[in-house]
Recover the amino acids of this structure.
C-alpha cells in the first residue's frame, strides 16, 4: 500500500506474541497489538506504523493459522457466514502515539470441502488472519463486504489518513 502511494518505507518485523485474549474487546486487542508492534521499532526519527488484524466470527477471535488444519478449521467456520475483520492501527511520531481500529463486515458464500483443499494447497492461507486473502485467490469466497476493502487487506487507508491528520500530516507529506 505504501509503495502504491509512493511513500518510502523500511520494514521492521516485531517479535511480539500475538495473543488473542478471549475476554477483551476485539478492537482493543487489535489496537494493543498494533501499539506493541509500533513500540518495538528501533527508529525514533521517523513515522512508525504498527498494524494488527484479526477476524471475529461468533465472538471467536481468529488470528493467523498455525498450520493447515487450523486454516481448514477457520475456513469452515467462515463458510456461509458473515464475520468482522478488525485492524488496529498505531502511529508514533515525535514522541506521540495515536491509535484506532477499523471494522469491516465480510460475508462468505458457502465453501465446498474441495475448494478448501484447493485453497490450502495455494499456500495463501498462512500468515493471514482468518486464513484468507481478499486481494488474492480468497476473493472467490466473498459475497459482499460492508466497510473498507483496504481494512480487509490489512491496511485501512481511511483510518491511516485520519490518524495522520491528528499529527497535522497528510499522505502528500509522506510522498517521496
Amino acid at each position: 500500500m505504501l509503495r502504491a502511494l509512493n511513500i518510502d518505507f523500511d520494514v521492521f518485523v516485531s517479535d511480539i506474541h500475538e495473543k488473542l485474549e478471549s475476554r477483551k474487546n476485539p478492537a482493543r486487542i487489535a489496537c494493543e497489538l498494533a501499539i506493541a508492534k509500533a513500540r518495538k521499532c528501533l527508529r525514533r526519527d521517523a513515522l512508525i506504523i504498527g498494524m494488527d488484524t484479526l477476524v471475529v466470527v461468533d465472538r471467536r477471535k481468529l488470528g493467523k493459522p498455525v498450520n493447515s488444519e487450523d486454516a481448514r478449521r477457520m475456513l469452515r467456520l467462515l463458510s456461509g457466514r458473515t464475520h468482522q475483520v478488525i485492524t488496529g492501527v498505531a502511529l508514533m511520531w515525535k514522541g506521540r502515539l495515536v491509535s484506532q481500529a477499523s471494522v469491516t463486515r465480510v460475508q462468505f458464500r458457502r465453501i465446498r470441502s474441495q475448494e478448501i483443499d484447493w485453497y490450502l494447497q495455494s499456500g495463501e492461507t498462512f500468515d493471514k488472519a482468518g486464513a484468507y486473502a481478499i486481494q488474492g485467490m480468497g476473493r472467490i469466497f466473498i459475497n459482499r463486504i460492508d466497510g473498507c476493502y483496504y481494512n480487509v487487506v490489512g491496511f485501512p487507508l481511511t483510518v491511516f489518513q485520519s490518524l495522520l491528520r491528528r499529527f497535522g500530516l497528510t499522505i502528500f507529506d509522506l510522498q517521496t
